[in-house]
Amino acid sequence: MKMKKIFLISLSLLFLVVIVNKYKENLALGLNLKKDLAPGAQAAVLINAKTKKVLFSKNKDQRRLIASTTKIMTAIVAIEDGKLDDIVTIGPNAVGVEGSSVYLKLGDKIPLKSLLYGLMLRSGNDAAVAIAEYIGGSIDGFVFLMNQKAEQLGLKNTHFANPTGLHDFKNYSSAYDLAILTAYCLKNPVFAEIVRTKQITVPWTEGTTRSFANKNKLLHMYKWADGVKTGYTKKSGRTLVASATMDGIKLVAVTLSDPTDWKDMIRMFEYGFKKLDKNYKGIALTDKDKIVAKKKEEVLDTDFTTIFKSIIGQN
Fold first, then answer.
1. pTM over 0.85
2. Are 216 and 231 contacting, i.e. CB atoms less than 8 angstroms apart?
3. Domain boundaries, given as residue ranges, for the chain
4. How far is CA 225 from the centre of its chain?
């Protein structure tokens, strides 16, 4: 009987050691054992861009407002259906569009590729309208192309009502659909080049140039980040679609209605890289992070001792 008790104690101890070591391993990555990697998000997903395998999800098929992440579809339709060197003449509907703007003027003649940089780096709603009218002949014509592409890609929880992402209850998608769309878009070298650009100066109208800095702060915050698009309206909250590539592994993540999107996005990417590459050690922690991690380990060690004492019957 005594040997049986010793065996059970040893087995329990071994089990707890495995759990503790796994916890500390995740802790070194700034992770924990909780399933929710995006606690601030109403909906989120993380996928392997190559295989489309879902690595983490939270309400991934829930239809939600997506704000300017709509422009991911705007960009890919324009890239596939247009000619990048074409000159777009700015009409009246593209002047003074509400929200984010690249300040187009009536009659400006601007290369399509330059407008795409304004669309994706500065989230120009006026650029979206100009592109839509040029490619689709009208806003409605372009929206038809957007929804046609969504159907081709099998995006079952997606419908577009405009090329900008400005508030419209008929303009929606899901975290999963946005991830699948983005994985598709990143296969296009022009799209991939645009969304990973941190800053650029492009040809503009009448021999002038225009400089754009990317609003996607993740490109500066996280070393593996290489895209894609931010978004925000009062109704949608903060939306973010991002990509990151490390040693040939490309991940795509989406957070919808998430006030802590930068932090949640990095947490998801770190989890994904660790899951897919057992040799990945994670990004370097700051001194503050190390102090927090050390305190968590001390608490964990204390809890472990308490658990062990309870197993062997000590108070």
1. no
2. no
3. 1-28+285-315, 29-284
4. 9
